[in-house]
Design goal:
By secondary structure, the chain is α/β, with parallel strands linked by helices. It contains 23 helices and 27 strands. The chain has three domains: 240 residues, 3-Layer(aba) Sandwich (Rossmann fold), CATH 3.40.50; 189 residues, ANL, N-terminal domain (Rossmann fold, 3-Layer(aba) Sandwich); 179 residues, ANL, C-terminal domain (GMP Synthetase, Chain A, domain 3), CATH 3.30.300.30. The protein has a five-stranded parallel sheet, sandwiched between helices. The protein has a five-stranded mixed sheet with strand order 23-24-25-27-26, with helices on both faces. The protein starts with a helix and ends with a helix.
């Protein structure tokens, strides 16, 4: 951490510093009813002071936890800082979680106070009250629909704010003293892991860990108060929290909260962020939208697009990095920037982006190159909740599709004989809350965090992640089997939304596929193929042929990778429904729960390997209102062609 920040060792202290030195600069923006509202640093600090005094008057004490439930909203971030002013610990929770999923974190952390965005989130908290007797106070921000709620636990956010302002007027010295008591070693926040296996774990992070890592990355990338970020991912996810809370508190840049998920792309174009983060699934979805629009365009536009995109694939990366590409290519690329790349960046809302990150899972190399080729400085980083995110970052001029970059300042890396990556860093978590056994298993006596990820550092000093250690397996012939790597390669195709592959301990690899309903639906319309819904579309022979083409193209690519050539997909089926977090098939961060899926659909896995051409399935699904229903379908199983390296090279 820089010397200037060493005395500002907590987030409340950083906030008060910003309120002094950049009082009238924008700290947050929020779009409400189509109009952007701006909060200055002074206004944020005033709100936080009043909230903190209101919470203290209501009985909130040092060391207690405050649940935060909702979308990205300035008031919810203010509530986080208010809790920290009092030595409390905010616990952001996933806003799309069903009520039952919220019960465990609230019970585990013995949460008595919660701040909820709106009626939807309040309803979830009220539903679990019988199982969470410690929850005594629920403050709601949006009053719409709350008029007839009479539960004694409920209080409007505005009333809490009013009571806090009165308490602050009575005793202004109280809060200053509470903030002064805080230190970097205090717990700043707790984030519950997505829980791919078992119950979620509460990851306890200190002010020092979060501030140090936010500062290290900001220094590396030259982030400053002029940068703008769109906060659109769940604030309960550590990545979004770092980009929309820790780093702006360190650098003074402005975060912007979109009005809704539906308006996010429009809002992004209006704001023009300079610093952007997106997991691969978001980047894939954006590219799918672009591909669909280009399919609908006229012949001239399609021709121009294909010509200039071919050019961009050849020389765009070199031009972005300032490497020689030839004057003629440079001139053509500039013409392409006027005709194609510039308008395309504008459609994506990335016209002003000077730095973009992707992380969370591996990104397909073609997808990665696409964004860089059109002039977007997209880079990969590596980190986790337990490391306060920033472990490895690709420096400018050293951006590669197959790495996540070298270690950031202060980070040490080493590997076990099983290739598991171990990390030692100032950003490491303090502990798993009330789970000493899990803490000991994850962080050894020498301070090394056992990530569970398999990888290696190449001669270039860059870290390469293969897969999760527990997921890396072998086929019967001892061929390396890295399921996530294969799944990500298949998901690059615009028609594939999700994939789950099986093969560990077996003689071949087989797969479940979720089609992308929008992309395949658009394709079906052009083919005059009628369908009644996702299940019907997914069952059509024409769609199976389309997916088989994607699988076989991926198999051809794998054939050229000696270690994974035998991991080509031999058989596949298209699932009758989208994999869903509410059904326990994905985590809230959209990671596949491979074990749970294999157990739930064991009959489908068996059909892939026993030669059946069709299989009947009946499975429970959970609807948004909590009802449980049953879906049944007859699924087809199809073979895919596999290739030898010589076949592929000869065809090329």
């Amino acid at each position: 951490m820089s010397a200037g920040l060493s005395a500002l060792d907590t987030f409340p202290k950083l906030l008060l510093q910003h309120a002094k030195v950049r009082a009238d600069l924008p700290a947050m923006r929020e779009k409400h009813l189509g109009i952007w509202q701006t909060w200055t640093w002074k206004e944020v600090a005033d709100e936080v002071r009043a909230l903190a005094c209101g919470l203290a008057a209501a009985g909130f004490k040092r060391g207690e936890h405050l649940a935060i439930v909702g979308d990205n909203r300035p008031r919810l971030y203010a509530a986080m800082c208010a809790a920290q002013c009092l030595g409390g610990i905010p616990v952001p929770m996933y806003q799309d979680a069903v009520a039952a999923e919220m019960a465990f974190p609230i019970q585990n952390a013995e949460i008595a106070f919660a701040v909820a965005e709106d009626q939807e989130q309040v309803d979830k908290l009220l539903e679990i009250l019988p199982n969470c007797p410690a929850l005594k106070r629920i403050y709601y921000d949006d009053p719409r629909g709350m008029r007839h709620y009479a539960q004694p636990q409920l209080t409007a956010y505005d009333k809490l704010l009013e009571e806090g302002r009165e308490a602050l007027r009575r005793d202004p010295a109280f809060l200053e003293a509470e903030i002064a008591k805080g230190s970097g070693a205090d717990t700043a926040a707790m984030f519950f892991t997505s829980g791919t296996t078992g119950s979620p774990k509460g990851v306890v992070l200190t002010h020092h860990a979060l501030i140090d890592r936010a500062s290290a990355a900001a220094e590396l990338e030259g982030l400053n108060e002029r940068d703008v970020v769109l906060a659109y991912l769940p604030p309960a996810w550590i990545g979004q929290n770092v980009f929309s809370y820790a780093q702006p508190f360190v650098t003074g840049y402005c975060i912007c909260c979109p009005e809704s998920a539906e308006t996010m792309m429009t809002d992004m174009r209006e704001i023009g962020p300079t610093y952007y983060f997106a997991p691969p699934r978001v980047l894939e979805a954006l590219l799918t939208q672009v591909s669909i629009r280009m399919e609908d365009a006229g012949a001239l536009k399609r021709t121009l697009y294909r010509y200039f995109m071919d050019l961009a694939q050849r020389v765009g990366g070199a031009i972005l990095e300032g490497r020689p590409a030839g004057f003629a290519n440079w001139l053509l690329y500039r013409l392409g920037d006027l005709c194609v790349y510039g308008p395309l960046r504008n459609v994506l809302g990335m016209s002003r982006v000077r730095l973009a990150y992707t992380a969370g899972e591996a990104i397909g190399p073609d997808l990665f190159r696409f964004y860089r080729s059109i002039g977007i400085n997209l880079k990969q980083l590596y980190g986790s909740t337990e490391t306060s995110v920033f472990v490895c970052i690709q420096p400018n001029g050293q951006v590669k599709a197959d790495t996540v970059g070298p270690a950031v300042r202060g980070v040490e890396l080493k590997f076990t004989p099983q290739r598991e990556l171990l990390i030692r860093s100032p950003g490491l978590f303090k502990e798993y809350y009330k789970n000493p056994q899990a803490t000991i298993e994850a962080k050894d006596a020498e301070g090394w965090f056992h990530t569970g990820d398999a990888g290696y550092v190449g001669e270039d000093g860059h870290l390469r992640i293969i897969d999760r250690v527990k997921d890396v397996g072998k086929l019967i012939d001892a061929t390396l089997f890295a399921p996530k790597y294969i799944e990500n390669k298949l998901k690059f195709f615009p028609y594939v939304n999700e994939a789950v592959v099986f093969g560990d301990g077996r003689d071949r690899v087989c797969a479940f596929v979720n089609i992308d309903a929008e992309a395949v639906g658009n394709w079906a319309e052009k083919k005059n193929l009628s369908y009644s819904g996702y299940t019907d579309l997914a069952s059509r022979d024409e769609v199976y042929a389309l997916v088989r083409e994607c699988v076989e193209k991926m198999n051809a690519d794998l054939a050229l990778e000696p270690e994974l050539a035998n991991s080509q997909i031999h058989r596949f089926l298209i699932l009758h429904k989208m994999l869903d977090a509410d059904d326990g098939e994905l985590t809230r961060t959209r990671k596949v729960r491979r074990g749970a899926i294999a157990e739930k659909y064991h009959e489908l896995v068996a059909a892939l390997y026993d030669g059946r051409q069709t299989v009947h399935i009946e499975a429970q699904v959970k609807y948004e209102d909590g009802r449980i229903g049953t879906l049944s379908a007859d699924l087809k199983v199809r073979d895919a062609q596999t290739f030898g390296a010589a076949q592929v090279q000869k065809a090329a």
